[in-house]
Amino acid sequence: MVLYTYDGSFEGLLTVVFEAYERKAWPDKIEPEHQAQPLLLGQTVAVTTDDAKANRVWQGLQQRLSAGALRSLYHTYLWEQPGFEMLLFHYVRLAFSSPENIEGNFTADCVLQVQQASKQVHREKHRMEAFVRFQKTQDGLYYAAISPDYNVLPLIIDHFQKRYADQRWVLYDLNRRYGTYYDLQTVTLVSLEKTDLPVKQQGVLQKSAFDAEEAKYQELWQVYFDHVNIPERKNPKLHLRHVPKRYWKYLSEKQPRQFKT
């Protein structure tokens, strides 16, 4: 039993691949160092992230895989489901060992699973881009909390930076307790537990932090939604397929109304 541990980063995972080839010892398991349990039998290899080694692995993959396949590998990392590290490792090992391009080899379980994982992450990315709503705070900062199934925050930054280029905003992942802050010029990673913002718990802001006009804007959006909604054309099943209930918490039009119009 050989267990490789790493710091949880994508570069760290690529470094694990490099170390496994250099040692000629294939992992039976790969885990983030903060989650790994000591082995009673077997060997644990603690890998320190090395950008040079990670780049060598990535450059090797660029010679064997298309840009789409490389993107799918990164999506698999962001997928974060149990065993994703070993899935990624099996895919990379197959890519390096095969004399032909493996991208269409769906008889290999790892190829099919990587494609499926990538599609799930890609779908979650687009839904976050469509359903996220920012709220304005008292100091003019726009804030949105999200809790995606997968770690799609790195994938949606560019969308919001282009769409809201003239506003300061924070997009915060409640599940993973980190976010991004845009200051009109650059985007930086933030942890709200380490800021002066009035955080209630795990990145949730207190209502007192929001601008006094914010509730009125949300109410106007709800009124607009009511007026464009045509009862005779309601199709609940189709609506749920396009807007699953787990995304309703982001939508102003789905929140309880303070008064009826």
UniProtKB/TrEMBL annotation:
The DUF4130 domain sits at 84-253
- Domain of life assignment: Bacteria
Q: Which InterPro entries match?
A: DNA_repair_put (IPR023875), DUF4130 (IPR025404)
Q: Report what the protein is called.
A: DNA metabolism protein
Source species of the chain: Pontibacter qinzhouensis
